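User: quick one, fold this
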Amino acid sequence: MTTPPSAFPDVEKLVVDVLKADPALAGAIVAVNPPSGFDGTQSAVLVNRRGGAWIGDLHVDMPLIEFEVYGPSKTAAHTLANAARRALLATIGKQIGSNLVQDAEEQDGPRWLPDYLYRGANRYLCVIRLSLTVF
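Assistant:
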Protein backbone atom coordinates (compact mmCIF):
# COMPACT_ATOMS: atom_id res chain seq x y z
CA MET A 1 0.00 0.00 0.00
CA THR A 2 1.32 3.44 -0.84
CA THR A 3 1.01 6.36 1.49
CA PRO A 4 -1.10 9.42 0.73
CA PRO A 5 0.60 12.54 -0.53
CA SER A 6 1.61 15.09 2.07
CA ALA A 7 -0.99 17.41 0.52
CA PHE A 8 -4.00 16.66 -1.64
CA PRO A 9 -4.28 18.40 -5.02
CA ASP A 10 -5.92 21.82 -4.82
CA VAL A 11 -9.25 20.49 -6.02
CA GLU A 12 -11.09 23.64 -4.92
CA LYS A 13 -8.99 25.71 -7.35
CA LEU A 14 -9.47 23.08 -10.06
CA VAL A 15 -13.27 23.23 -9.66
CA VAL A 16 -13.36 27.04 -9.44
CA ASP A 17 -11.36 27.22 -12.70
CA VAL A 18 -13.74 24.77 -14.41
CA LEU A 19 -16.81 26.74 -13.33
CA LYS A 20 -15.33 30.14 -14.21
CA ALA A 21 -14.61 28.89 -17.74
CA ASP A 22 -18.24 27.88 -18.31
CA PRO A 23 -20.32 30.53 -20.14
CA ALA A 24 -23.48 29.50 -18.25
CA LEU A 25 -21.85 30.80 -15.05
CA ALA A 26 -20.71 34.13 -16.49
CA GLY A 27 -21.75 36.95 -14.21
CA ALA A 28 -21.82 34.76 -11.10
CA ILE A 29 -19.27 34.93 -8.34
CA VAL A 30 -17.33 31.65 -8.34
CA ALA A 31 -14.95 31.36 -5.42
CA VAL A 32 -13.91 29.40 -2.35
CA ASN A 33 -14.76 32.25 0.03
CA PRO A 34 -17.48 34.87 -0.29
CA PRO A 35 -16.15 38.28 -1.31
CA SER A 36 -16.28 41.31 0.94
CA GLY A 37 -19.80 42.69 1.10
CA PHE A 38 -21.45 39.40 0.16
CA ASP A 39 -24.96 39.19 1.62
CA GLY A 40 -26.31 36.00 0.03
CA THR A 41 -28.51 37.72 -2.55
CA GLN A 42 -25.91 37.81 -5.34
CA SER A 43 -25.50 35.05 -7.90
CA ALA A 44 -22.66 32.96 -6.50
CA VAL A 45 -21.21 29.47 -6.35
CA LEU A 46 -18.97 28.86 -3.35
CA VAL A 47 -16.80 25.75 -3.74
CA ASN A 48 -15.55 23.72 -0.77
CA ARG A 49 -13.86 20.37 -0.35
CA ARG A 50 -15.84 18.44 2.25
CA GLY A 51 -13.55 15.49 2.80
CA GLY A 52 -12.98 12.51 0.59
CA ALA A 53 -10.41 9.76 0.41
CA TRP A 54 -7.03 8.99 -1.11
CA ILE A 55 -6.76 5.59 -2.84
CA GLY A 56 -2.99 5.15 -2.66
CA ASP A 57 -2.48 2.12 -4.87
CA LEU A 58 -4.29 3.83 -7.73
CA HIS A 59 -3.07 7.40 -7.07
CA VAL A 60 -6.70 8.50 -7.00
CA ASP A 61 -8.09 11.36 -4.93
CA MET A 62 -11.83 11.09 -4.32
CA PRO A 63 -12.86 14.46 -2.86
CA LEU A 64 -16.38 15.44 -1.95
CA ILE A 65 -17.04 18.86 -3.47
CA GLU A 66 -19.81 20.98 -2.02
CA PHE A 67 -21.40 23.85 -3.89
CA GLU A 68 -23.22 26.53 -1.93
CA VAL A 69 -25.21 28.23 -4.65
CA TYR A 70 -26.88 31.60 -4.13
CA GLY A 71 -29.13 33.76 -6.26
CA PRO A 72 -31.37 36.81 -6.07
CA SER A 73 -34.39 34.45 -6.11
CA LYS A 74 -35.00 30.78 -5.36
CA THR A 75 -35.52 30.12 -9.07
CA ALA A 76 -32.28 31.92 -10.02
CA ALA A 77 -30.32 29.98 -7.38
CA HIS A 78 -31.76 26.68 -8.65
CA THR A 79 -30.88 27.53 -12.26
CA LEU A 80 -27.33 28.43 -11.23
CA ALA A 81 -27.00 25.22 -9.17
CA ASN A 82 -27.95 23.16 -12.20
CA ALA A 83 -25.44 25.04 -14.38
CA ALA A 84 -22.65 24.42 -11.86
CA ARG A 85 -23.53 20.72 -11.58
CA ARG A 86 -23.61 20.32 -15.35
CA ALA A 87 -20.23 22.05 -15.76
CA LEU A 88 -18.50 19.83 -13.21
CA LEU A 89 -20.16 16.59 -14.35
CA ALA A 90 -19.01 17.40 -17.92
CA THR A 91 -15.36 17.06 -16.85
CA ILE A 92 -15.50 13.25 -16.79
CA GLY A 93 -12.65 11.90 -18.93
CA LYS A 94 -10.85 15.25 -19.17
CA GLN A 95 -7.35 16.05 -18.03
CA ILE A 96 -7.17 19.26 -16.03
CA GLY A 97 -3.64 20.26 -15.18
CA SER A 98 -1.94 17.24 -13.63
CA ASN A 99 -5.25 15.52 -12.84
CA LEU A 100 -7.47 13.25 -14.91
CA VAL A 101 -11.14 13.31 -13.95
CA GLN A 102 -12.02 9.61 -13.95
CA ASP A 103 -15.53 10.11 -12.63
CA ALA A 104 -17.91 12.68 -11.18
CA GLU A 105 -20.91 11.41 -9.29
CA GLU A 106 -23.60 13.45 -7.61
CA GLN A 107 -23.98 12.56 -3.94
CA ASP A 108 -26.63 15.13 -2.94
CA GLY A 109 -28.50 17.94 -4.53
CA PRO A 110 -29.51 20.35 -5.49
CA ARG A 111 -31.08 20.69 -2.06
CA TRP A 112 -32.78 23.86 -0.81
CA LEU A 113 -31.27 24.90 2.50
CA PRO A 114 -31.98 28.26 4.14
CA ASP A 115 -28.87 30.14 5.19
CA TYR A 116 -28.98 31.53 8.70
CA LEU A 117 -25.85 33.63 8.22
CA TYR A 118 -27.34 35.62 5.34
CA ARG A 119 -31.01 36.34 6.10
CA GLY A 120 -32.06 37.27 2.55
CA ALA A 121 -30.25 34.38 0.90
CA ASN A 122 -31.70 31.90 -1.54
CA ARG A 123 -29.37 28.92 -1.26
CA TYR A 124 -29.08 25.44 -2.73
CA LEU A 125 -26.44 22.89 -1.75
CA CYS A 126 -24.99 20.21 -4.01
CA VAL A 127 -22.33 17.59 -3.29
CA ILE A 128 -20.38 15.85 -6.06
CA ARG A 129 -17.71 13.21 -5.56
CA LEU A 130 -14.84 13.41 -8.01
CA SER A 131 -12.37 10.67 -8.80
CA LEU A 132 -9.10 12.28 -9.87
CA THR A 133 -6.05 10.40 -11.01
CA VAL A 134 -3.09 12.43 -9.83
CA PHE A 135 -0.01 12.46 -12.08
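User: anything notable?
Assistant: Residues 66 and 127 are 4 Å apart (CA to CA).
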